UniProtKB/TrEMBL annotation:
The lineage of its organism: Bacteria, Bacillati, Cyanobacteriota, Cyanophyceae, Nostocales. One of its GO terms (molecular function) is DNA binding. It holds the Pfam family HxlR. It comes from Dulcicalothrix desertica PCC 7102. InterPro entries: HTH_HxlR, WH-like_DNA-bd_sf, WH_DNA-bd_sf. This is HTH hxlR-type domain-containing protein. Keywords: DNA-binding, Transcription, Transcription regulation. Residues 13-110 form the HTH hxlR-type domain.
Length: 111
């Protein structure tokens, strides 16, 4: 974090980089679901409203960013599983913190 000319904390590109990797409507929810290994169909059912095309796209982006690993098993019919990589696992504390913040936010909002 850097200070701007008025001595206020200014978020830098590190935060922007994080948002770029996990931002958007679906990625954090996909990561949440991948706290345990899942197959494509399980992910699709766990995320109401996401299309097959969007899930495929988001999983590919997360895979390209090193967050998700796609494991294909050589069998018929093909079996494909998705899981967090070690780098993806490091996002768990961030998701837990987001959960805690959301709980507090909803409690205050509903007072």
């Amino acid at each position: 974090m850097h200070l701007d000319s008025k001595n206020h904390a200014r978020l830098t590109c590190e935060v922007e980089s994080t948002i770029k990797v996990i931002g958007g409507r679906w990625k954090v929810l996909i990561i949440r679901e991948l706290m345990t290994v899942k197959r494509f169909g399980e992910l699709l059912r766990a995320l109401p409203g996401i299309t097959q095309k969007m899930l495929t796209q988001q999983l590919r982006e997360l895979e390209d960013d090193g967050i998700v690993r796609r494991q294909v098993y050589p069998q018929i019919p093909p079996k494909v599983e998705y899981e967090l990589t070690p780098l993806g696992e490091t996002l768990k504390p961030l998701l837990y913190a987001m959960h805690e913040w959301g709980v507090k936010y909803l409690q205050q909002k509903n007072q």
